[in-house]
Amino acid sequence: MDVDFSQAIRKSISFPLESFPNIKELKAVQEDAIISFVRRRDVFGVLPTGYGKSLIFQLIPGICRYLNKTGFPYPSNPILIVICPLNALIESHLKELSACGVSACSLSDGSVNIDDLIAGKFSIVLASPEAIVDNTKWRNMLQEPLFQENIFGLVTDEAHVVPKWGKGNAKERKAAFRQCFFRLGEVRSLLPLGTPVLALTATATPKVKKETMEGLSLKPDTHLISVTPNRPNIYLYKAKVNDSLECFDWSIDNIKLKKNTTPKTIVYCKSQKECGKIFRHFKSNLKEDLYFPEGAEKVSKNMVIGMFHANTLTKNKNRVSDSLFDPDGTCRVVFASTALGMGVNIKDIFQVIHYGPPRQADDFLQEIGRAGRNGQAAPYILFYKGNHLKNCDLNIKEYTKTSEKCLREIILKEFDETSTLLKSGTHDCCIICHKICLCSPDHLVEYLCQRLG
């Protein structure tokens, strides 16, 4: 029976996969996560950016329906609750699911009919943690008999924020940013016994894994799936800079030269204030080259640069994200906060720049992983000033200050990664390894110019 069931699950995967024409086959770890979750086992998947984490839960409702039709005890109208940390991520999921014919809704949409939700009209219900934990209306819905018949599982997307946002910091005397994240474990008590939980994220240190499991009340036998966060196609470069913003002159010149063919770039900033400052610097220096095509109306939709953070107007956020998803989009360089980091699935981001490093290694890898998701060579650049290092973890400070150690090795040691470092082509690794490479100086200069655009 168990062998037959395993075969049935594998066969069932191809049923909903037909709705995803760009996916030819699943990676082994995706299939592993799906099979364990469908068997109603808790799963914690740590898979790098661009690895297809969302596809894991997007396929689950279709798999349940197939198994129901073949006589296995699964709901005929399966519901999956997916917790997301940002509205922008919810909107991104809704667009993607709609394009693939998967019925989905958001609890933040005031027009959603609760009776439709209970009856299983929507296979995937997207929600913030506050909606599920603190909203009496939705908590009561979870306990409706028909909803309990249809609910299959609970998913937490970008699960690393469970402890990061859900717990306070006693050392720094900071309250939790969004306490409901660390209370998501309460939801298990409202759902039928045996309802599985799936946690997904791109990066998580051993400490973050442990705290996430605690916050979600994952079971001791949770199936842990982890893939190295090392991205060998990303070249690591860093430079200490001053306040003048001259470090961006090459990028401004690049835009003037290449205009709407400028390689897509995300510039992550430490604050909204710095986002605005650098945006204005580019705007004042680009002048007539700020808009495309030549002679175009001087409005935001024709700008080759954009800004994306929590307080950016929704229409401007939509302009930026729509343009980035379009291979021929006008907006080529975006100055952003972490709001543009989570769940952004853009295949052709050429490079990521940090103007000041993230505080922690997992955020660092999460954000630089936006570059080179198509597998092609991609540069990562860190520009930093002394005051950027305030409150950063020790390994981030070591990364910025070292002049001798491999940058890749420093950032990966937090994840107990030592065997995945580059073994050949030293100059492919980082600026430190580049300097000690035995290749000819002329070759190294040419290589560096190519990698940094």
TrEMBL record:
GO MF term list: 3'-5' DNA helicase activity; ATP binding; DNA binding; four-way junction helicase activity
Organism from which the protein derives: Paramuricea clavata
GO cellular component, as recorded: chromosome; cytoplasm; nucleus
Transmembrane segments: none
Top-tier EC class: isomerase
Entry-linked SUPFAM superfamilies: P-loop containing nucleoside triphosphate hydrolases
Name assigned to this protein: DNA 3'-5' helicase
EC number: 5.6.2.4
